[in-house]
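Researcher: Good morning. I'm working through a list of sequences from a screen, and I'd like to move beyond sequence-only analysis. For each chain I'm collecting a predicted structure so we can compare shapes side by side. This is the next one on the list. No need for commentary yet; just the structure.
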Amino acid sequence: MPDVPEGAVSLPLVFDAPRGRAKPPRHLADLDEPGRKALLEEMGLPGFRAKQLSHHYFGRLADDPSEMTDLPAGRRDELVAALLPDLMTPLRTLEADRGTTRKTLWRLFDGALVESVLMRYPDRVTICVSSQAGCGMACPFCATGQGGLQRNMSTAEIVEQVVAGARSLARDEVPGGRGRVSNVVFMGMGEPLANYRAVIGAVRRLTDPSPAGLGMSARGITVSTVGLVPRIKQLTDEGIPVTLALSLHAPDDELRNELVPINTRFSVDETVAAAWNYAKVTKRRVSIEYAMMRGINDQAWRADLLAEVLNGYGDWGWVHVNLIPLNPTPGSKWTASDPADEREFVRRLEAHGIPTTVRDTRGREIDGACGQLAATET
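Model: Good morning. Structure tokens for this chain:
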């Protein structure tokens, strides 16, 4: 395996999508409450109507203007156009697990395609959202990474994935009866911390009290990253106690350089140190994501090395390892670990005092599992 994968040096120094593209229409979810009021007033519309529109969107989960009967009929269309423009069109929804796992393909205003996945469990409902159309991190075992980056998503486009899922639950469209979204994971398409401003905006809209936002607990939100160290440090200072999930996938630089090319810029030691500091400051346990690949990163000695790296910061329970059986992607040479090797990996980590679980894979048959989102219309 090469020390530095081909193409790794071309990763951008600034982790943002190219500028100059047309922007999505501005939506109330892009703005805080004062911003919504100000926008209406700038357009010559009554600012106090912003709170009513927010109540319809976040509180009632309404998407039909005719249901917004507290808005004056003569100005309803203007108000809705100003703050509730259409952002995304659902093209297809695939179901698995007897309808409790639903993957939706969305077309954005400019034709870009993204996917989100709703997963209903007996005790919770989790929505996995995308934060970018495509991804620029180029991890070779991930279908999204192989497609490259098209653009960043707006705050409202990210939020709309959650609101759409919440509508489906409220309207009893998901088996199990009416319900609500309890967890949101930024583990769909894209590198969330490469679209930092929009992702933080989305987190704030999800956690703002109703009707300003969805009123979720920050502890029910997980933000994943492959290890953009400057952004992890920035997130540490935000004061929002979300769970940080670090997609590590290897405990040594030689292998991680190949599996996660950004590692050629931020080493394992730098990345884990930033995650540990996040845990220390926020008092939130960090999740280490580790995709198990047969004969690549699943050797028992690598489990020992991973434990050594993580325990280097003490054994005060700052971290949890989440092993992910690798999900197949078309044409990939990477395959899932043998179950016996997976069990030994778990045993070794637990013997070193590292809490470890193996992720319950959902949606594999509809290409809705971790690493499988590619957003194609075929």
